Hints:
The structure holds seven protein chains of seven kinds. Chain C is mainly α. Helix content of chain C is 77%, strand content 0%. In chain C, helix 1 packs antiparallel against helix 2 and helix 2 runs antiparallel to helix 3 (57-86). In chain E, 16% of the residues lie in helices and 29% in strands. In chain E, helix 2 (92-103) links the parallel strand 5 (81-83) and strand 6. Chains in contact: A-B, A-D, A-F, A-G, B-C, B-D, B-E, B-F, B-G, C-F, D-E, D-G, E-G. At the C-F interface, helix 1, helix 2 and helix 3 of C face helix 1, helix 2, helix 3, helix 4 and helix 5 of F.
Amino acid sequence: MSAVVGPSVFGLDPLYIGGVGLAEVLITLLKVGAAFALLLMAVMLMIWFERKLISDMQNRIGPNLAGPFGIFQTLADGIKLFFKEDLIPERSDRLVFKLAPFLSLVPAFLVFAVVPVGGDFDGSDGRVSLFGHETFLQVSDPPVGILLVLAMSSVAVYGVMLAGWSSGSKYPLLASVRASAQMVSYEAALGLSLVAVLLKSGSLSTNQIVAEQSMWNWNLWVTWVVPMVVFLIAATAELNRPPFDLVEAEQELVGGFHTEYSSIRFALFFLAEFMNTITMSAIIVTLFLGGPNGPDFTTVGWLSGLLWFFVKLMLFLFAFVWLRATLPRFRYDQLMDLGWKLLIPLSLGWLLVLASYDIAGDRGWNRAAAVIAMLAVMAALAGLLALALRAARQRRELDPQGGFA
Amino acid sequence: MSASEVVAAAASDEAVRRRDHSAVLRIGEDDGERLEAEAGAGDTRMIMNMGPQHPSTHGVLRLMLEMEGETVMRSKPVIGYLHTGMEKTAENLTYLQGPTNVTRMDYASPLFSELAFSLATEALLGLEPPPRATWIRMLMCELNRISSHLLFQATNGMDIGAVSMMIYGWREREEALRLLETITGLRMNHNYIRPGGVAADLPDGWRDQVLGLMDALPPRLDEFDTLLTGQPIYRERLQGVGVINSAECLALGVTGPILRSTGYAWDLRRDMPYLAYDHVDFDVVVGTYGDCFDRYAIRLNEIRESIGILAQILDQMPPGDYRVQDKKVTPPPRARIDESMEALIHHFKIFTEGFKVPAGEVYAAVESPRGELGCYMVSDGSSVPYRMHIRGPSFVNLQTLPHLMQGGMVADAVAIISSVDPIMGEVDR
Amino acid sequence: MVTASWYLILAAGLFTIGAVGLLVRRNPLIMFMCVELMLNAVNLTFITFGRELGDIGGQVSVFFVLVVAAAEVVVGLAIVVAINRRRPRATADDLSVLRG
Amino acid sequence: MKLPLVGDAGAIADHGLEGVDHNFVTGKLEDLVKWSRARSCWPATFGLACCAIEMMATGGAHYDLARYGMEVFRASPRQADLMIVAGRVSQKMAPILRRIYDQMMEPKWVISMGVCASSGGMFNNYAIVQGVDQVVPVDVYAPGCPPGPETLMHAILTLHDKITSGEITRRRGETGAGANLTVGQRDGQSSTGVAIRT
Amino acid sequence: MSNSVRHVPRDQLVETVAELRDEGYVSVLDVTAVDYLEHPGRTDLPPEVAPERFELVVTLISHAAPGRTRLRVQVPAGDPTVPTLFDLYPGTEALEREVADMFGIVFEGHPDPSRILMPPDWEGHPLRKDFAVGHIPVQFKATR
Amino acid sequence: METAVFIVCAAIVLAGALGVVLVRNPVHAALSLVGTLFGMAVLFLNLEAHFLAAVQIIVYAGAIVVLFLFVIMLLGVDRLEDLSVEPITGQRALAAIVGLGTFGLAAAFLATSDIGVPGQEALTGPVAGQYSNLRQIADVLFTDYVYAFEATAALLTISVVGAVVMSRRMVRSHDAAEPETAKDD
Amino acid sequence: MGYLRGFAVTLRKLFKGTETGRVVTTQYPDEKRPKPVRFHGRHVLNRYEDGMEKCIGCELCAGVCPARCIYVRGADNPPDDPVSPGERFGYVYEINYLRCIHCDLCVEACPTEAITESKLFEFSFTNRADAIYTKDELVVGDDGRPQQLPWEDWHPGDDEHTSAWVRATSPSGRADYEGQVAWSGELGYGIRPPERGQAADEEGDGPDPDDRGHDGHGGHQ
């Protein structure tokens, strides 16, 4: 194994700087294993947490009979599904049908690989010492980490899409069509809101991005909140979580794309959905809330980082459940409208505002004036957009066949 | 719009009819798959079966939707999956047993069916129930209207995807049901309103409990308002969806909240009063646009009106008999059985063969939470109805579905079914 | 050791497969996919040469190819959709209607 | 092929858990599986009439089926374990009910909720199937018209007990497993009452 | 508020309903039928109306002067056909289908004359008096 | 290591490409294409083109092929193509000849000549310059090629507008128009 | 901001101490919701205070049952060991609980208050035969309490009031017969008190001093 391949594939992790030996491989394997186990445990707890929390929000108790506080509820679900009869529908496309659940699960895990879950970023780049080797608390830190996130989240649509298509019946197919349109649309908003972070951090490496946000210097403030809101909304849509869960809208499409799935294959979808929720929350924490950054209050440096990361993660998991408990579901066209007519222009405009701030700083102009001027331009453009949309709607309403009385 | 103008519109508006033909998918129940197979692969229209076992078809309604992409072009409701033969069963049950049968029709508001049945029987008998019975009936009906509309709030929330709203709706409904249970002994299908009065007097402590419910509900309704009415996503989902106008409603025979949502104020309680509704003061809630949101808002506000009516009923509840004191119709009090041979004989006669009702035919109607619930009854002079027919509002209202759905999306279809609030037991009977 | 020729021969093979597919298949969607294969082959060549010559320009060219490919697919698929609306089951042979 | 601790692979493939040799390890495993089946018994959303309203009320805050891990009402029969036949089954509905039952995956259970489903109840007439056990094998009957939420919960708990003790699986084994269970004439109904058209 | 009953010959049904519509009867509330096969003796018919086996009952409502009118139409058993009211009130569609399903009365001109409540291949019309209820004995231990 | 990666990826790429050409079901063809694209992305990584590897997946796999699948599902054209009929006689033979000829020529050229491939030594060291791959691309893109870059922006905009106009339904205007625009990012 | 106000509603539920956040769940089977006095549960056949059965086999209940779920056959009392005080007694008494709709018409019809309904509604069967209750299972035990069958879930206190007593003793709509005791005593309980009826109404509604179960209506106290 040549030392030169290392940096190109595994990025900048100090673990590989001194060459790759057996210890490095073992540590890497350990990190992969730990990340996977951690993620699985987290999924189990997340499902339980979601069910308990949503029950609390509805004056109920929620699962409380499987183990203490019902904490083994997910385990029971998993074991049951594992031992349930499996079926591949006659009209399905067998190969694709079998492939789809894995297509949805693998990207969910891969994204997590670039998330720094701990480490002391206060002044340093977050390296910790594992068995005498310096390394990051993340599986891998490729130089294009953020692009990997985008790539994986755009690949995740395949699982949903192919599952629906391969089932060979109508409801899943409809869900597939919805899924592809929805996920591709929100991919754009997701990417654009990310650019704001990149603009400020100047790096695609997640480790770098976290290191840039040491202590309280979070991107949330640095990018003036809006990109995070856009990202959160777009992420919710990417995850097919309520109120954007049109893909599996039970009331409309029975089970959505997984209508025909049973047993362990269905469990994989279930797993992927929640794993995606967790990884996406982790990504938000990394990008906007400074990852493991926070005041150090323990003697072991990296432990407080882990704790901070966990606390911030919980915040977003809570938010996702809260959204589910509160909001009704969007309709397909409203979802598209929100994505295309609000989120994308907003994130694009915000990017320009941030850029004008930076450029004004570089050129020595008055920053406030530049931002205000840019905001004015944005407002004018927004006005134009609104006018255009209204005109379009009016024409649609006049269209005798388009509208309904 | 005045009534006469509406009539004129209904009479002249041939557009209503034309749209009829285009909105309703006129194919047989089993033809969907055949047509699908015949259509070329490039034909983008497909026929989709929604139901009879589908989460949002409120039980066993089946809809055949002709769709283009996600847009519903034409549709046809297919019913009968819950056909129970209740009208046939009614011909084999005495007038005394009758309420047990009709109460199972509209299981969300069972007392209204019992009331319509009892009013029809009383009309044939030529009896006037005592005032306390009348007021108890009103009390019960308004409580039932509240629980029925709460059920709507729950299912509507569920269909729109607001999971908490569903649970909140059930929670409030449970409170109302417990009150009904205290009074009648059953949560649903009460068999409480009988020809000649009600089965039992109000229990001890009923007034406190009704007051308790009246206190507890309004803040919860305000919660619904915050959660849904004021929620932009929710409004977007419902406003302008499933629009219908008064003329169309009347032409289709639609009654209840759907008719009122078009701005047409027609409520039997006010316009053709029965029981003692002319002695209470309440507003008929109407909408403006005839869309799903109006229908939701009407039901929510009718709960508030019902609470107002309950207050007046509490004030005006008269003392006295709660069943008509006619030996032929009402069994004697327990105390009389031991004293009087005649009473014992009446008791036995009523519980073995029931009471005889003079020959004739009659139609009686009440305003149920879903519209005009009528009972058409023919008697041949025996103690069993010769023919008993219930005009179910859901059954007639269901005909609006194709018109409301045309041009909408699948998600709209779900919202529309929900806003029509059909109870399939009453549709299929 | 992998030399540039390996990559170039792979690209040539890929290009050939794409070209043959384009000539043989009648489904317009699959023909599009074959075009994508050919573009990919070219991309690989660009990057390999860029790498060999130590010039980042090769990668920049690939970037432009990607953008143009995206634009091409957008328009191409729109044409397919439009044709399909009017004549279901159209194959590439039927696309002669596009001629004036 | 003989596997250590577990038993003959072919037998397991043919009979699932029933084919597993009984020893300490598999015994514990079987207990675990039974526990999980009882603790995670997802009902299908299958509502018919009055009982469906009570079934939903059971999922509401006052009774909270979620405590048993059962709030996961699955709209797709493929993912459901339990079919609660809630309400009267008409002659027109019976074939559909059967189809949905057939779409469910083993192991699956049926609760006949309410007297109308169990035997036709007070609707002893031409339109109603006099007992859903003529169409699908029923594991637990809940009486009442409609059964209150607590009655339904009692029925569910009864079912959980039976799942945990393995009684149902045994009974299925004796009478011809699962969906192929031939249901004898019950309640005086002639066997011609329902024609299954699937 | 008034409730009136009118007896209408079968061939004048459509005209009568059209007249009523012009008089302000905005809606048809109900269309149903009665099978008088086993009725012991009908006393409520006026002398000029000859009783037949079936009677179609149409209930209309007027909102302007609140009131309902019930039209009773005698339909002979030998020729159970009635003209449809669909063209005047499209809301009668389902109601007429139900009557057709339950009584076997044919509505001429109805756009969708299929069964509505019973399965399409069902034989017989359940609400006719000569259709048996289908009662089966209830199960008891002592009657085994 | 690099050899192993190359061989595996080349096999994936070629298998995927053959799949596109030979498979009858369009969805399977699209999936084969995804395989090819992933293989390509890894090859790009092997060639130190990190940025393009990621963009390859995001744009090609994440958008273009999804769009293919979307159109296949939307139009319901996922029926099997009959490959047994040859629309134009001799077409396939001709195509095979042309294909083999092209490949043969290119391969022969590469094998025999020494032009264009200055060093047939291993491709190992980083591309010239001390900056990261991304930085290098950006530097060139926004200086030398800035007009070309702007032109691509115009191209994308025009193609989106054109696509929307073309795929609009004549009768019904408001539906199905939006999804088609969901393709350019 | 209508988008956000809803979040406050759901968030408030997390505060368990407040009225809106109160958990309303009854944790069956560990606890049971208190049932109102008039609750219709499964039937019991009552006995007089001297242990005699009240049922006289008159079949009124069977006749009035809309579901025809009661089967009664009367027989003459054996003179040396009478089962009921009258001439005849219910020799066979069966209720098919897979037919019974709990409408309580049987309770209203019974001339001797022999059949009433308990407050037990938590039972279910795994076997159709279990659902047919015979007289041995229906009749109250020697302490006047309903018998507990293996598949029934009785909690302490469930047997206190064999309810629907109210319908059995209904004054049939006559206000002046309300509150009058016109029924016989019952094994283990003696003569049950009537509901107070409209008398309580006029006095103003205090909760009934002897607390007959309407305390369980969560939320409105």
